[in-house]
Design goal:
7-stranded mixed beta sheet, 877 residues, alpha/beta, 4-stranded antiparallel beta sheet, 31 strands, Rossmann fold
């Protein structure tokens, strides 16, 4: 087999991925081995590969490949999430381009378009993950809208409803006017934004008096149903029991009293809009106020908005401000910073809205999940700092709004049979619902046609919180062999931004339905940012094309580049130079392999002692690094594990070991050394493989004929053995000696091809273990031990040991004298200029203290250098 001198990732990666797929290495079945299971955080079916996916899935692949090498039954389940809001938005946009309005379609008609879109565009990201080298069990690929997955979701909804944990209520919710659906509290991102505080005058009914309120949303005055004052605020005693008139719409509203009003904020008078503010709704309920909803579902004003009907809320804000000012109602405007809620998905500003929704009671459900993470440690978060975040959210949790006003998703299994709000039943099928309705109404004449299913869909997270169970059919069939074998899973790798959305909820569901944790460890990656610490996004244009990176640097290079600086929980400042470094590492290892293929191997040559001891040293070094690597993996410090591997192979293997054992130019290498070196190379490839799967498999297979059972992907992870620390320490000392010899050669321009004599004054009592290595790497005639300093020799120190290289024959004495004389003359001239400056009293007295100090240091350094140069010249004459 001809080995090319340069590595070309493009010719290698698809070859080995196809080979792995052909031989089914990624597929797992229950057997007698210890299972190791990861479920993928299912990317949106609408998604394409971005840098966050690259980092997250590289980490998962590292863990799964290492487990496979450790002999575990590694199972990595891939899949995608139906992503209700995002997917429905894509389908609506496509229909709009075709001139079709979603509102003109029935649910079934819309869903046909949604499934067509999903089948055409969905799952692209899974194919892209293959380019990265992800070794998922593709036969197990799941989609949250698969029939069995949907059945699990419906089963859980019905069960929770029957337990009294799911209820329907008319509540203030977060409304996304762009997606036209409600959102849970966790899907709202609050951002501080600068707006205005508008001071408006309201007339008092039956008098010329007025009161002033301050509001950030003047467009909501059409929904005002009261003005509230603090009963203890003496400024407004005269307003008690009176009524105010709302500007423009002239509605008469009561002035109520409640100590909820902050007398220090604004004017002390509060406009109450129960339909559009959660706190106002509580006031409204307490005081039996009218509720006036002024918005359409897209946040445009409805008929209560009078002549602003049909206009967007923000357009109205500008226009109504102008009208209020012209008519004398707007007194003044001030800038004001307040928190504005935006949709995590669409980025639209959230509108509080009253509506009938489905909720899941969380107070009791969260208790086992709190205990598992914060008390028993059954579920561990890496890094541990996220436990505080987890605690805050779980201990302050609110009921989960699980219904969405969308077609795409799992339709809520509630069936209405009458006109009242409570005229419904909940069941897994419409047939079951009919029997329940007959029983509930005592009406045996009811037909399926009398039932109408709730039009809402469930929150997407309501399906993904079951993911570790449902991918193994553990909800519908908890006694099945696969679920009992693979569940609980081992590791979950995800971003901290969905710690609440997904991770915590999976823990909650796991304990509710299996009384077990869904996974043992949660590795929370950092977010990928650019060099300016900005989060990568399409809008900023700072997110590189993931597939182009793979094309340029190879999948292995990109994987290493991502992991070299991505400690758990810390943001990764991505720089393409990191991928270049990863590619460079691969090229270094390939060059090392290529070098070994050029050597002629001889069975007749005795192994040099330098090679023997060097191989023993590297084995010790490898074992020490292996302990470090295992420790890093146990703490999910994958970047540190990679760096340990990088230094071991780049510095110790390529930089030292190969240099020691390689034969002289044109000479063969002894078979004992060669065979041992290749064996060590194979061990290197094993620890590299989880991080750089393609190049390692290529080298492994190129080393000799391998059967499919002998592929690197299913090789055996190196075993830990005892570490010869003394040998490592001795080599560290010897390497400093070699570096000293090389420095002298370079400084004195002694050609490396010229062998030189060498003497050691062994004050440290160092053993001669590596003398043969020093002799070879330093190209020494001999290594002699002396009892006193050698006169007239070049010298250097390592600790208290002195090393001597005789100048006779080693250097051109006359050239060295000329070089040192020239340097001495320059330094003496420099000293004179410094001393002249320091002898100037005006300079010394007037210059800043640090400037004078700097000049004095220059003087001292020059004097010391002159002394050294003179001593060196004296030794040459």
């Amino acid at each position: 087999m001809s080995i090319p001198s340069k590595y070309d990732a493009r010719n290698v990666e698809s070859k080995w991925y196809d080979y792995w797929m052909k031989h089914n290495y990624f597929h797992s079945k229950p057997d007698s081995r210890e299972p190791y299971t990861i479920v993928i955080p299912p990317p949106n079916v609408t998604g394409v590969l971005h840098m966050g996916h690259m980092l997250n899935n590289t980490i998962q692949d590292v863990l799964i490949r290492r487990a496979r090498l450790q002999g575990k039954n590694a199972c990595w389940v891939p899949g995608t999430d139906h992503a209700s809001i995002a997917t429905e938005a894509k389908v609506v946009a496509k229909l709009k381009d075709q001139g079709i309005d979603k509102n003109d379609l029935t649910r079934d008609e819309f869903l046909k378009h949604a499934w067509d879109w999903t089948n055409e565009y969905g799952g692209v990201i899974l194919d892209q993950l293959k380019k990265l080298g992800c070794s998922c069990d593709w036969e197990r690929t799941k989609f949250t809208m698969d029939e069995d997955m949907s059945e699990a979701v419906i089963k859980v909804f019905v069960d929770l409803y029957n337990k009294g944990l799911i209820y329907r209520g008319y509540r203030m919710v977060n409304w996304d006017p762009e997606a036209k659906t409600t959102l849970s509290d966790e899907e709202v991102i609050y951002e501080e934004k600068q707006g205005n505080l508008y001071y408006l005058n309201y007339k008092i009914e039956g008098s010329d008096d007025t009161l002033t309120i301050a509001t950030t949303r003047p467009e909501t005055i059409f929904g005002d149903t009261a003005i509230c004052i603090n009963p203890n605020d003496e400024r407004f005693t005269h307003l008690k029991g009176k009524k105010a008139i709302v500007p423009l719409c002239n509605r008469v509203i009561p002035i109520i009293e409640d100590d909820y009003v902050d007398v220090e904020f604004g004017t002390g008078c509060l406009k109450v809009t129960p339909a559009h503010d959660e706190n106002d709704k509580m006031l409204g309920d307490k005081h039996n106020l009218e509720v006036v909803d002024i918005f359409n579902e897209d946040a445009s004003l409805n008929s209560f908005g009078l002549h602003y009907e049909g206009k967007d809320r923000f357009v109205v804000r500008k226009e109504i401000t102008k009208e209020l000012e012209e008519k004398g109602f707007l007194i003044k405007t001030e800038t004001h910073i307040n928190k504005v809620g935006t949709s995590e998905r669409t980025k639209a500003v959230i509108e509080p809205r009253l509506s009938d929704q489905w909720f899941l009671k969380m107070e009791e459900l969260v208790k086992p999940a709190i205990k598992a993470v914060l008390e028993t440690g059954d579920v561990k978060l890496f890094p541990k700092k996220f436990e505080n975040t987890y605690r805050h959210w779980m201990e302050n949790i609110r009921d989960w709004n699980i219904s969405r006003q969308l077609y795409w998703g799992h339709q809520i299994p509630a069936y209405f049979y009458g006109d009242g709000k409570e005229d419904f039943v909940v069941a897994e099928t419409i047939e079951d619902a009919l029997e329940l309705a007959k029983t509930k109404t005592s009406n045996s004449e009811l037909q399926v046609s009398d039932l109408t299913q709730d039009q809402d869909a469930l929150d997407t997270w309501f399906s993904s919180w079951l993911w570790p169970m449902s991918v193994f059919d553990g909800v519908r069939n908890p006694d099945n062999e696969e679920f009992k074998y693979y569940y609980p899973t081992n590791d979950l790798v995800t971003g901290p931004d969905i710690l609440f959305f997904w991770v915590a909820r999976m823990v909650i569901a796991g304990y509710e339905y299996t009384d077990e944790r869904p996974f043992e460890n949660v590795y929370l990656t950092g977010l990928v940012r650019d060099k300016q610490r900005r989060k990568m996004s399409k809008s900023l244009g700072n997110s590189p094309d993931a597939l182009k990176l793979i094309e340029e640097f190879g999948a292995d290079g990109v994987r290493v580049g991502l992991l070299l600086s991505s400690a758990a929980g810390n943001d990764l400042l991505f720089d393409e130079a990191l991928c270049q470094q990863g590619k460079g590492f691969g090229n270094k290892v390939w060059s090392a392999f290529y070098l070994t293929t050029l050597w002629e191997v001889s069975q007749d040559i005795e192994q040099p002692n330098s090679s023997k001891v060097a191989l023993e040293w590297y084995e010790a070094k490898f074992q020490k690094a292996l302990i470090e690597i295992e420790d890093h993996f146990s703490k999910y410090r994958l970047s540190d594990a990679l760096m340990s591997i990088y230094k071991l192979i780049f510095d110790d293997f390529c930089g030292w070991l190969l240099e020691i054992v390689k034969p002289a130019y044109g000479q063969p290498i002894d078979a004992v050394t060669y065979n041992k070196l290749i064996s060590i190379f194979e061990e290197n490839l094993k620890i590299m493989h989880p991080f750089m799967p393609f190049i390692t498999e290529e080298i492994w297979q190129a080393m000799g004929e391998r059967s499919p059972e002998e592929a690197l992907i299913v090789a055996k992870w190196p075993e830990q053995k005892s570490v010869n620390e003394a040998l490592i320490t001795e080599f560290d000392f010897a390497s400093q000696v070699v570096s000293g010899i090389r420095s002298v050669r370079k400084d004195k321009n002694i050609a490396f091809k010229d062998a030189i004599a060498f003497s050691i004054l062994n004050n440290e009592q160092v053993r001669p273990t590596f003398d043969e290595v020093i002799k070879k790497l330093g190209n020494l005639e001999e290594v002699a031990y002396v009892t006193e300093a050698v006169e007239g020799a070049l010298t250097f120190r390592v600790k208290s040991n002195e090393y001597f290289i005789p100048m006779s024959g080693a250097i051109d004495v006359e050239a060295e004298i000329n070089k040192l004389t020239e340097e001495l003359n320059y330094t003496e001239g420099f000293l004179k200029s410094v001393q002249k400056k320091l002898s100037n009293e005006r300079f010394v007295n007037n210059a800043p203290e640090q400037v004078v100090a700097s000049e004095k240091k220059k003087e001292a350094d020059a004097l010391a250098k002159i002394e050294t140069l003179k001593a060196s010249l004296a030794s040459l004459k």
